[in-house]
Amino acid sequence: MEATPARARGYVLCVVLAALYCVHAVPTAPVPWWAVALLAALYAGGERLSGSFYPVLLAGAFLLPPSAAALVAVPGALLGPVSEVAPAGRTAPLPTQALAPVAGHPRPLRRVWRAARLMVAVWAAARVHWALGERDAVVAADFPYALLPAGAAVLAFCLTLTVLDGGILALAERVPVRRAWRGQFLRSLAPIAVHGLAGLMMAVLWRSPFGPFAALLVLLPMCVSWWAFAQYHRERAAHQATIRALVQAVDIKDGYTRGHSERVGQASLMIARELGLADERVEVLRFAGILHDVGKLGVPTRLLRKNGPLTPEERRVIELHPEYGHEMVRGISFLGEARAAVLHHHERLDGSGYPYGLSGAQIPESARVVAVADAFDAMTSTRSYSRARPVPVALRELEKCAGSQFDPRMVTALVRAVDQYGWHPAVTADEPAAPAVRPPVADVPGAHR
Description:
It comes from Streptomyces ferrugineus. Helices cover 61% and strands 0% of the residues.
């Protein structure tokens, strides 16, 4: 388990103190504690279903004084399930929730963090709502005007989560500061606004002559949709577990490239983001990088670990691994264009690559991304047949081969991304490499097999 940095623990402590201050404040109106208990129970039950039952929290912000509303999140956040798998890409039900259940940090700390951040966010939403509309906003005769304080409360809730999550991203997950907050608010606003509308409907029905029971009816269709959403993510989690198992098998078989797949996935992700691709495609290209060498499971281990250059016959055997890999992953439907990248990542722009000698635009875009990422990591990692090169040298080699071997767009994107965020390649050999014998120049830069 990765130790949580002291600065991140200090940050969490500050948020906890802020949460305690929120609930310590004297209520501005009598508190219906039965309503607090009922909403807290609903939220705790919803946490087990979806992991983000925000309509109940926002209904509490519309119905209760701020200090009481903040308490609604506590039981569900502290007692709810804590996932051991960090979300990949944007797969969490809400983007702002991605850091609540991050794996690699102690469970108690994650639970406390999740509770504190929600308490502060709900308190902020309730404070804004009461400042603009007070308690009668959800029962006013001219109902459309209730949307103004409710909308402002939703914005406060979303903004608070964005600020808090950006901080924990930067401190606990070591995300560069310039990326920690970038785009989070806009990605979160739409789904949280939908939750806010449902919370407002709950609050209006709660205060209607039909009472709390009618408010619960609002949750029924949302529960069904969240159940379907949870099923979808369970299926994706199963696929990701399969991917991890395949990559681990490759790493065990080819010890000299241990960690290579994950780094190629990261480099592919950096290129895709620099190209401005949609989040869904960025995630798929990360999978493509991770799985690009899975076909090595079909290659004899003695060839993968051989010191020095390969014979022509041995090279022909090695060059079958893209086709082996494509056969292994073609049945995983959600991989999409990643399957083409597995098959074609050794093709070259000038048509001299393998397995089919494609050229130019015939090579799928995903394969052109992974080809650059693969060669870059090959050059910056020590292998049995070559020593690691400095990152600037590897980038210059890629630029030299752009247009003949690699797509210039992909090379330029990687250069920009590395210049902006940096790159820290690891030595992947199991033991210090002996003086390397260079493979033939015809191989890719970095002597990658």
